[in-house]
Design goal:
The structure holds 2 protein chains of 2 kinds. By secondary structure, chain A is of the alpha+beta class. In chain A, about 25% of the residues lie in helices and about 35% in strands. In chain A, a hairpin with a 2-residue loop joins strand 2 and strand 3. The chains are: A alpha+beta, B alpha+beta. Chain A: Pfam families: RNase_PH (PF01138), RNase_PH_C (PF03725).
């Protein structure tokens, strides 16, 4: 999609007037749809649809050996797959840069111990730990990927069921794990402080959140903030432009405020989800 | 990840010997307390002092432009090559492209780095590209690509900033049109302590929480790149857990630190000009 100058001016004026193309204000999000537990083979999953951005996240866990230098911690890895279904640009290796950028930003946002505690994934110090694979599939791109992905990841991790380990038998170098045989005897992951990302986009003189594809094209630069609790766990500048320090501070403030509202809204939605609800296009 | 079998990769599983050493290394908490008590750092710098900087242009004779930067023990070489057509591109792009590659030499860190780019290097390359894209007048070379390679010879912290600053010098040495001099500075935060231009030890001190209390547990690394005359931030990256107020404060500090570097770079470039003039006068 490419816009001509007149269209760009129209978008820009809308942002100035605080009345965007689809009638939203600058700090408003588009409607979202969230479903969890929709992939049967995964330990946890979520699908988030933000207007026409569609993200499917599935969490798989496996047993692994901890890194020798961090023997008390489990592992968490993010993989983003830009399916060519989303846009033809992603065909072949086209989406790779974007995928790597999103995955790196996520791992950077989850790295701090206060954002996500990896020590809880350790089973036996230095020997066994859980490795959590978070696979993110972009089904449709309608702008604002970072926000949608971070929300879906948080919901999928919230939904994840880690089997309980009752005991460990050590016989020489052999380690046997005594995993609970009950299907529903599982632990949940603690995602209370898992970061939520907000993309703050600068258009003209003003900053907006949740840009659509058209708005993303008009922006001169944007900031992705990952907020965990009331602190920033990652801030990243994206886009080609540069920002004035005052704009940067302003967008950080805006991102901080919006991220907290978004997090509250996410929790409110997650609380409403009842187990075993039969919804979604995958079921 | 597939390994390059033409190179010596070493055994599959090796451990750094330091893991087996007697646990005499002080804990992060001790190091932090020590720093706090001393009021200055291990190399007698104050908390807000930048390390001494050494700059030199033209160290790679075959590159169009090159620069070498030393921040005490951090040593980075950056070379810039002639623009060439963007490979594998069908459509004509109005703006030139920048390709950045950030690489740690295998022997640059405590642990041996592999020849293949890992996630950290990919991320740093992307950050470098972000920083330089808004510095270079990309409309001056449409449909062309400039390659920038940064190689870290010795990693003693703040390598990414060093590479960005040096890349700015290398670009001007290569005669690539630019808007402004770009300078970049790293900063580490641990609780209330702010460490400008951290070395590798201080960087790891700042990358995680040292005590388990969640109150006032700010920690993190901030990297900023600024175009000084225009007062524009071309790149901003933060990881860790930092509150909004702290982040505000650091941006101000970093702005000042960046502008302090500008005269050094100007001097280095003037030196280069004088040298070229002299040699052309002789010839």
């Amino acid at each position: 999609m490419s816009l001509c100058e007149a269209e760009k001016t129209f978008v820009l004026h809308g942002v100035e007037e605080n009345f965007r193309l689809d009638g939203r204000e600058r700090e408003d999000y588009r409607p979202m749809e969230l479903e969890t537990d929709i992939v049967l083979h995964a330990f946890g999953s979520a699908r988030l649809r933000l207007a026409n951005t569609d993200v499917l996240v599935a969490v798989k866990i496996e047993i692994d050996v901890p890194f020798p230098e961090r023997s008390k911690e489990g592992k968490l890895e993010f993989f983003v797959d830009c399916s060519a279904n989303a846009t033809p640009d992603f065909e072949g290796r086209g989406g790779e840069d974007l995928a790597v950028e999103i995955a790196n930003t996520l791992s950077s946002a989850y790295r701090s111990k206060h954002a996500f505690d990896l020590t809880k994934l350790c089973i036996l110090k230095g020997k066994k730990c859980w490795k959590v694979y978070v696979d993110i599939l972009l089904l449709e791109c309608g702008g604002n990927l970072f926000d949608a992905v971070s929300l879906a990841v948080k919901a999928a991790l919230w939904n994840t069921q880690v089997p309980k380990v009752h005991g460990v038998n050590i016989d020489g170098n052999n380690i046997e794990l005594n995993v609970s045989e009950e299907l529903y005897d599982c632990d949940r992951l603690d995602v209370k402080n898992a970061p939520v990302m907000v993309t703050v986009c600068k258009i003209g003189e003003k900053c907006i959140v949740d840009p659509s594809v058209a708005e993303e094209q008009c922006s001169v630069g944007s900031i992705v903030v990952a907020v965990s609790g009331d602190k920033f766990s990652t801030v990243l500048q994206t886009g080609t432009g540069s920002l004035h320090p005052a704009t940067l501070m302003e967008s950080l403030k805006l991102g901080h405020r919006v991220a907290q509202r978004l997090d509250e809204a996410l929790w409110a939605t997650l609380r409403q989800i009842k187990p075993g609800q039969d919804v979604g296009f995958l079921k | 990840m597939p390994l390059d079998h033409k190179r010596i990769n070493g055994p599959d599983e090796t451990l750094p010997y330091s893991l087996f050493a007697k646990q005499s290394t002080p804990s992060w908490n001790q190091i932090f307390k020590e720093l706090q008590k001393e009021g200055k750092r291990s190399d007698a710098r104050g908390f807000l002092d930048h390390r001494k900087v050494f700059l030199k242009t033209g160290i790679v004779s075959q590159a169009k432009g090159s620069a070498y930067i030393e921040l005490d023990n951090s040593k980075v070489i950056v070379s810039v090559f002639d623009p060439h057509e963007i490979p594998n591109r069908q459509d004509y792009s109005l703006k030139g492209e920048i390709y950045c590659e950030f690489k740690f030499a295998p022997f640059s860190c405590k642990k041996r780095r592999l020849h293949q780019k890992d996630n950290e290097e990919n991320q740093y390359s992307a950050i470098m590209k972000q920083a330089l894209e808004s510095t270079v007048c990309r409309h001056e070379f449409p449909n062309f690509q400039v390659d920038i390679y940064a190689l870290v010879l010795h990693n003693d912290g703040s390598c990414l900033s060093a590479a960005i600053t040096a890349a700015g010098i290398a670009l001007s040495h290569a005669g690539v049109p630019m808007y402004d001099i770009i300078t970049s500075v790293t900063l580490g935060i641990q609780k209330d302590m702010i460490l400008l231009d951290p070395n590798v030890l201080e960087q790891s001190l700042c990358s995680g929480p040292i005590l388990d209390d969640t109150k006032n547990s700010d920690h993190g690394i901030v990297v900023i790149s600024i175009l000084n005359n225009h007062n524009q931030i071309s790149q901003f990256y933060q990881s860790g857990m930092i509150s909004l107020e702290k982040l505000n404060q650091t941006v101000e500090l970093l702005q000042k630190a960046c502008s302090d570097l500008v005269p050094l770079i100007q001097k280095c470039l003037v030196k280069h000009v004088i040298k070229t003039l002299k040699s052309s006068g002789e010839g």
